[in-house]
Amino acid sequence: MVSSQWPGLPAGVKFDPSDAELLEHLAAKCRVGNSKAHPFIDEFIPTLEEDQGICYTHPENLPGAKKDGSNIHFSHRIINAYATGQRKRRKIQNQHNRNEEHVRWHKTGKTKPVIESGVQKGWKKIMVLYKSSKRGCKPEKSNWVMHQYHLGAEEEEHDGEYVVSKISYQQQKQTDKNDDIPMIEEPDNLTIRTSPRTPKTITPNPPRPWKSMIYDDADENMHQEAKFAAEGSHLPPLAVQCEDDLD
Q1: Among the ranges given (9-13, 39-43, 174-178, 222-226), the one the predictor scored with the smallest mean pLDDT
Q2: Angle subtended at Cα 120 by Cα 117 and Cα 124, rounded to the nearest 5 degrees
Q3: What per-residue confidence (pLDDT) applies to 88?
Q4: Are 150 and 122 in contact (CB under 8 A)?
């Protein structure tokens, strides 16, 4: 936290160095090359002088530890690190309660080199805190995570060597948080929103006066033609005889 002790730093300044920057601070602490430590660095990366290093207590008891996803940084020596197979483990010493669960840092994934501008600065490994209630039981993974950094060209650090550790408590995923939020159900009449449809109907053809006039004239002509045909079929025989006389 920035306070009046450092008037040159505005309130709200957050210490969030990159992997390479953490190794630079470590190199300055170990006086590697011409590196010089920043005058305020011990306020941001305090040194743990306990015999067990970072493992002298549970991470939740470390100075400044919070369960809000924020990071805390410490310099400490590697002490009593042991390997099971190819996995580094570090047992946390508990001096307050001997009957408490067994807690250990377990390495996960591969140790990765930290490279900046083509130059390797050191190494980074990730460790997760596991706990078990009894010996021989399968350990349970916790939300505590530690990123550990060490200098040098060798992948593994040496016992007694200074390292920098960044520790945080990873919060639950957003999807898990959403499960606790009560769902608000909408009324049934709002679940399906569709516009009303107009039923299909057969529209009658409008009357067309000109069309009816044509049909009326045609009917009248047909009627007259039929009438003339009928009258022609009843002509007197005299008319036929006159035609024969003309021949």
Answers
A1: 174-178
A2: 120
A3: 59
A4: yes
